[in-house]
Amino acid sequence: MNKILLFSLFTVISVNAYAQEDNNTDYDLRADEKFGYIIDKSGKKIEGIVRLNGDERNPWDNQKKVKFIAATDIDKSKKKQKFKGFDADDIKGYTAIDENNNERHFETIKYTNTKEGFNTATGGLSGNLKAFNNLTKSTQFAEVVTEGKIKVYKLYGYPTTFSAGGQIAVAEKENERMRNAPSYIYTKKGGKLDELTFAKAKTIIADCSYAKGKMTSGAYASLKNDEKKRSGLGKLIKSQIDDVMSNVPQIVEEVITDYNANCQ
Question: What Cα–Cα distance (Å) separates residue 39 from each residue in 62, 86, 221, 234?
Fold first, then answer.
């Protein structure tokens, strides 16, 4: 990162400061509460009610904080309960039941989303704030997409916290893009975290004859490209074309899940 960008980022720290939420907050208990759990720093599983901090419009908020009350701390004589907020420095992870009754697992990881950090489409102060938000967050909760020899996480970029004038519409368009296009981060056998791309998917499954054979025979639709569409992408280099055309969620669902089930 060049000195000009670095200076710009740190001159706006005071503007970018988030209002600190009170650690303890009163919440009404629902009639159909379902227990999730957190994993504390020692690795102990503590059951209780887990409230997701984010929603469909702000999915990145689930990566920053989670609200929790242990089952042993619930006072059934009271409708309102005090939930405590935990961030990724406090616990190793959490599991929550969302409003659609889906069980969702999040783990604390150390990963800096440099791709979103340098993707400052909004430009100016707004773009610098977006860069700051992404480049300064290394410890965060990431949602587990699939478990196994290759573990994959879903990770959203963080939006700008400021926009004005003509930047507002651009910033909202950028936020919508981030809602719909999270990054997928993988680790193989507990190794280094890296972004899953079309090219990486082909490489990381090549150590298994079962998966490599299916890839070579064209059995994985998500690892094939339409040559007609490729030709329409002009002068982009091959790796860029592959990434533009790849469908990483489909690769995870079709290829990585198959690899984990059949390659040990």
Answer: 16, 11, 37, 49
Residue 199 structure tokens:
């090219």
Q: Does the CA dihedral 100-104-110-116 come out positive or negative?
A: negative
Which amino acid is residue 95, in one-letter code?
T
| Residue 169 CB contacts under 8 Å (≥ 6 apart), including other chains | none
**Alpha-carbon span 60 to 140, nearest angstrom:** 10
Q: Which of 104, 113, 154, 155 is nearest to 134 (CA)?
A: 113
* Interior/surface letters 141-168, b for 16+ CB within 10 angstroms, e for the rest: bbbbbbeebbbbbbbbbbbbbbbeeebe
Q: How far apart are CA 66 and CA 166, in angstroms?
A: 34
Tens digits of pLDDT across the chain (264 residues): 444 444 444 444 333 333 344 456 788 888 888 999 999 999 999 999 999 999 999 999 999 999 999 999 999 888 899 999 999 999 999 999 998 899 999 999 999 998 888 876 556 677 778 888 889 889 999 999 999 999 999 999 998 876 666 677 877 888 899 999 999 999 999 999 999 999 999 999 999 999 999 999 999 999 987 544 555 545 555 455 445 445 899 999 999 999 999 998
Beta strands in the chain (DSSP E): 24-28, 36-40, 45-52, 65-70, 80-87, 91-97, 103-110, 139-146, 150-155, 183-188, 194-195
> Which three-class secondary structure state does DSSP give residue 13?
helix
Taking each helix axis as running N to C, give the angle between helix 167-180 and helix 124-135, from 0 to 180 degrees, rounded to the nearest 10.
Answer: 30
Question: Rounded to an integer, what distance in angstroms lies between the CA atom of residue 88 and that of residue 86?
Answer: 7
